[in-house]
């Protein structure tokens, strides 16, 4: 009996020693932390983010040795990223569509101004036939004359009428008409009106539109050789 009691005491002592070792080991393992570097995202400025290396802590559970708990890293929610700020679109009015010539081929009139197809006012000091100059019409009949047209009749005897009056800045719809078997070329003597030029064949009519220049008297003539001395007249601008 005495030998059995000693054996039991020895066994209990061994068990206590082993449990002390296990508990002591667990107490050393529990504060350990495994540091793992994983890419994190940090907001740098409005609308962008860039990876920044930040250590991520992994907690260690000593009981996981015996199958209790786990060693998964702590899940940290990603940082909030400010939304991208989109600048307000400027209210830019659309460009107006290109104009077209009138039915007879003269330059269009917008708000009392004879204009180019790009809406820019025509220029009267450029070469006739250029894009900046007013367009003359195709050959037309009297029924196609524009409203309030002024008609100048050219013939071998001269011009009828030899004078006409207009208001400064007003729109002039000027018809050049050939009376007889001759051709004629209407032009102004003033260089500031050289873009206003119209050529007609025998028994032909063409029209041109332009805004009257500043007040004054502007001489016109036929630019066909031999016609300049007799086919002349004056436009009076008030």
Describe this protein with a few key phrases.
four-stranded mixed sheet; 2 domains; single chain; 238 residues; 33% strand; 13 strands; Immunoglobulin-like; 1 helix
Would you write up a description of this structure?
This protein is mostly beta strands and 238 residues long. It has two domains: 33-70, no CATH class; 109-237, Cupredoxins -  blue copper proteins (Immunoglobulin-like), CATH 2.60.40. The protein is built from one helix and 13 strands; from the N terminus they run αβββββββββββββ. The strands form four sheets. Strands 7-13-12-9-10 form a five-stranded mixed β-sheet, with no helix packed on it. A hairpin with a 2-residue loop joins β3 (109-110) and β4 (113-114). The chain is rod-shaped and about 165 Å long. The termini are far apart.
């Amino acid at each position: 009996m005495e030998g059995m009691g000693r054996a039991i005491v020895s066994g209990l002592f061994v068990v206590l020693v082993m449990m002390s070792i296990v508990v002591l080991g667990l107490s050393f393992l529990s504060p350990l932390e495994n540091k793992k570097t994983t890419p994190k995202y940090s907001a740098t400025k409005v609308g962008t983010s860039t990876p920044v290396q930040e250590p991520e802590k992994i907690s260690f559970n000593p009981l996981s040795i015996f199958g209790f708990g786990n060693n998964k890293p702590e899940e940290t929610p990603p940082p909030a990223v400010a939304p991208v700020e989109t600048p307000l679109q400027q209210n830019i009015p659309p460009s107006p569509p290109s104009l077209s010539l009138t039915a007879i081929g003269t330059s269009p009139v917008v708000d009392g101004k004879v204009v180019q197809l790009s809406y820019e006012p025509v220029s009267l000091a450029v070469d006739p036939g250029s894009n900046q100059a007013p367009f003359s019409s195709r050959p037309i009949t009297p029924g196609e004359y524009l409203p309030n047209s002024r008609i100048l009749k050219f013939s071998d005897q001269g011009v009828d009428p030899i004078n006409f009056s207009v208001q400064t800045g007003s729109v002039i719809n000027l018809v050049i008409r050939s009376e007889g078997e001759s051709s004629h070329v209407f032009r102004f003597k003033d260089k500031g009106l050289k873009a206003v030029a119209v050529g007609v064949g025998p028994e032909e009519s063409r029209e041109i539109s332009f805004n009257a220049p500043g007040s004054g008297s502007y001489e016109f003539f036929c630019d066909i050789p031999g016609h300049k001395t007799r086919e002349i007249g004056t436009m009076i601008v008030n």
